[in-house]
Amino acid sequence: MGKLQRVTNFSFLRAVAVGIVGMSALSFMVRAEDLGSHIASRVEQKALGVQSYKANFDLWLLADGKEFFLTGVTLFKWPKMLRTEMSLRDSKELSQVIYWKGGIVWQYLPSARIAFRQQEEVLRGKYPDAFASQDLLNLQNPFDLIETKTLQFLDEERIDGKTIYLFEGVPKKAIRHQGVLTPALCRMRISDEHGLLQDLVLYDASGQEVMRQHFWDIQPNLELLEEEFEFRPEHVKLVEITQEMEKRMRLILKEDSSP
Fold first, then answer.
1. For domain 3-19+21-255, which CATH number applies: 3.40.50.2300, 3.30.470.20, 2.50.20.10, 2.60.120.10?
2. Which of 7, 21, 228, 239 has the fewest beta carbons under 10 Å from its own?
């Protein structure tokens, strides 16, 4: 892989780490909405009972007409600790590692020996709906990606003998305008077993898929040590991007006043 291609992939991965008459019909719609709210509340409560997890994932992205295929593993420990390792498909080298602990998010690109640091608590203190790289990797709070008033329950499925719920909604503004992808709709499958996210699909305004992520071999409530979530950089260039992210959020809020 040439130097220009590596730089393009690094920039893309960083930006990344940075989708529906009459009284009887109306009555049915109200009941369906109540059912959806009940199911959403139930899976949220189940997810809150998960103190930790480990899961493998496959990720497909479409950006500027180019496809990216990644695979990885993500680990989470309550309350706010996450580590995600991912690689481009068919590559033996790690493309990116994300660490989230103590209100700090690190995006580490091993091949480039660069780590980007974001003070997540500072950013969210000013912009509660700010988008951070770990948001698309957190299986426990998928509804946080969606504008609350747009969340809809679509269907119930049985996959491998287990109940899965399908929801959709409009992604929050910071996700719709985060730069690489411009999703207009988000659909997700959530397990009734433990309330964790299993599939996430983003669509652009034309209905075309721009991101698809599948989590598998989900193992809830594992014994995980805090040390597994600590980033200890050695011989690595450190870049602070909190102010850059703040400027991006100000621009998003200034340019688009829609909900």
1. 2.50.20.10
2. 21
- pLDDT tens sequence across 23-58: 233 333 334 467 788 999 999 999 999 999 999 999
Question: What are the residue ranges spanned by the domains of the chain?
Answer: 3-19+21-255
- Burial pattern 142-180, b for ≥16 Cβ within 10 A else e, equals bbebbbeeebbbeeeeeeeeeebbebbbbbbbbbbbbeb
Distance CA 204, CA 202 (A): 7
